[in-house]
Amino acid sequence: MAKKILVSCGTAVATSTVVAKKVEETLKEKGYDVVVEQCKASEVPQKAEGADLIVTTTPVSDTKGTPVIQTLSFLTGFGIEDDIEKIIDHIK
């Protein structure tokens, strides 16, 4: 069964698109079945329920108990592998 990852940023336009694509591609290359959905940080409270993990580039609130990884590594290129390992730990 696919794991759902919610990717959020301030406006759900450019930043979350880049992060979502990198997360999805990397995890699928590693053999993980994931569904990645983008949203604005302000939409997290409505969309967190049902997600297995939230990956965000900005602080988010009211995540309904869903684990959160806040990172800029997918944008900067530094620390991506560490963050991928954190994501994998959460979706196993």
TrEMBL record:
EC number(s) stated in the UniProt entry for this protein: 2.7.1.200
The UniProt record lists the keyword Transferase: yes
Keywords attached to this entry: Transferase
Pfam families: PTS_IIB
Single Gene Ontology MF annotation: protein-N(PI)-phosphohistidine-sugar phosphotransferase activity
Cited PROSITE patterns: PTS_EIIB_TYPE_2 (PS51099)
Source taxon at top rank: Bacteria
CDD domains registered for this protein in UniProt: PTS_IIB_galactitol
Keyword 4Fe-4S: no
Classification via InterPro entries: PTS_EIIB-like_sf (IPR036095), PTS_EIIB_2 (IPR013011), PTS_EIIB_2/3 (IPR003501)
GO biological process: phosphoenolpyruvate-dependent sugar phosphotransferase system
Domain PTS EIIB type-2: from-to ranges: 3-92
Record-given protein name: PTS galactitol transporter subunit IIB
Organism, scientific name: Bacillus safensis
